[in-house]
Prior knowledge:
Blueprint: H1 13-30, E1 34-35, E2 38-40, E3 48-50, E4 56-57, H2 65-78, H3 80-98, H4 101-112, H5 120-135, H6 145-154, H7 159-175, H8 181-191, H9 199-226, H10 254-275, H11 281-298, H12 303-336, H13 340-348, H14 356-373, H15 377-395, H16 399-411, H17 421-429, H18 433-460
Helix pairs in contact: 1-12, 2-12, 3-11, 3-12, 4-6, 4-10, 5-7, 5-9, 6-7, 7-9, 7-16, 7-17, 8-15, 8-16, 9-18, 10-11, 12-17, 13-14, 13-15, 14-15, 14-16, 14-18, 15-16, 16-18
Amino acid sequence: MSEKKKEFQMPHTFVILFIIMLIAAAATYIVPSGSFNRVPSNIYSWLKLIDPSSFHYTEQTPVGFFQFFICIFQGLVQVADIIFFTFICYSYVYLVSSTGAINGFSNALLKKTKGKEILVLPIFIIFFGICGSTFGMIESTYGLIPIFVGIATAMGYDAIVGISMVGLAAATGFASATTNPFTVGVAQSIAGLPLFSGIGYRVAVFIVFQIAAIAYVMRYAAKIKKDPTKSVLHNVEMETLQVSEETANQEFTTTHKILLCGFLFMVVMLVLGGVKLGWGIPQMSGLFLVMLFASGAIARYSPNKIAETIVTACSKMVFGALVIGVARGVLVVMNAGGITDTIIYGLAKPLESLPTMLTAQVMLLLQNMINLVIPSGSGQAATTIPIMAPLSDLIGINRQIIVLAFQFGDGYSNLLWPTASGMIMCAVAKVPFDKWLKFFLPLFGIYYVLQMIFVAAAVMFNYGPF
């Protein structure tokens, strides 16, 4: 009697990240250590820029057994602000949900859009896409994902649609940047271009990618609404956001309406704070805390109940928060081994001898690859633009095109690589990453073809210099 073949089981998220870290650690024994000299930016006091002509090999510093585990801790520490921001965001969302406001709103929405639920999707995708494109909203969506997973589920879709309404939308907008200060702003400043110059072309990019995202998500949503077995999450046991004894007929009360108006107010303030006031994670966290306690008071929760709700919410968010820190450990290992700059230098060197059109496409590919190990937009800009900008002068490509290739490569693959935001969003929504990839890979293929077309067109009509 033949033994039944075991089905392949996707490794746990932490196992995947641990394997990637092991590969990075092994590379520190093989790849020569090297470094560029770094100088302070004249525009951003916190930014250190690479001197592209200063690369030099340094003494090998391979990451040993004990140091490897120290790097995991250091990764957690380096992104502590994002981790605690996620805890705070989710605590607010969880408290509002615990009042029944989400269920009440969902039921009211279902009644209003009965038979037309699909039209809700483009509204949120466009809104969060604009937020990502204009002021770089992405981390602040992590705490919002569960609320949209709940809404999507109530409308008869699945958690993938919920992630897409907010997370995929913001990440697509982040990559299709018009005035994103963390990517276009930093990259153009380093490249010596006027801030947010060339915006007309990037607006066209944003519109095209938004159309692609909306069409893809709506097609998937319509398909699973018609036949739930077509969902990539079919037969996957999902944990829902419901945290109290709510029924399918939850009433949408005046208190619920006030709470959700508060939620809309908070989103507007996030936009204004990011665009007009230069807010960062500390200020956004402060806003979420204010809304958390105010919502508790509006819901007539006692101080003890508010505290208990926060503790429960944080306990449910531990996994997603830890993923953020462990993912950063990959970069920490590479930096500790001194191989990050060597890899960047090695990738950029062959570009000097390629034809112009091919060089632009290879730069796009390299930026996508580099995003696996440097998922920070500003960090990747500070590392690669000082190399690519002078190189573009030598081969006759406008620096505006280099910035475009950078923003594309840094952005869309954030939803693909396990070290970037896609993995984190899945962890927050309790969605297996392999299921997300099954949904997203075809869309990424579409995205990549569009990236190639826009970069090629930019080279053909000589996009830039301003």
